[in-house]
Amino acid sequence: MRTLISTGSPFEKTAGYSRAVVQGDWCFVSGTTGYDYATMTMPDTVEAQTRNCLATIAKALADGGFEMADVVRAHYYITDQAYVDVVFPILGEAFGEIRPAATMIVCQLNKPEMKIEIEVTALKRTA
């Protein structure tokens, strides 16, 4: 059974994607930037954007019946190499005990105000 998860962001409808797709025991969370979807504002700092990304991802996972502890793969996209040492501790707070396979890439993102984008894949843990 396939379930589509939405944040209600206007970007999802415009670009034709879901925040997350649940297929069986898997949850695929789309690349998530630092927007606060309640206010549709983007914080100025990479730290605040990272925390917003993680909160949006956690909610999408929860909406699909998953937890952050189910994350098995993470992709991090940052716009400046200087952000590596800034975001590592924040990512460590979220994933330090989970330790998913991860990749970080320095690249350009869709809008100039975007400093980080995070994408994760989760697999339901079995007892």
UniProtKB/TrEMBL annotation:
Q: Which Pfam families match?
A: Ribonuc_L-PSP
InterPro entries, from UniProt? RutC-like_sf, YjgF/YER057c/UK114
Write down the superkingdom of origin. Answer: Bacteria
Signal sequence coordinates: none
Q: List the CDD domains hit by this protein, alphabetically.
A: YjgF_YER057c_UK114_like_6
Q: PANTHER family this protein is in?
A: BLR7761 PROTEIN, YJGH FAMILY PROTEIN
Mind telling me what this protein is named? RidA family protein
Originating organism: Mesorhizobium abyssinicae
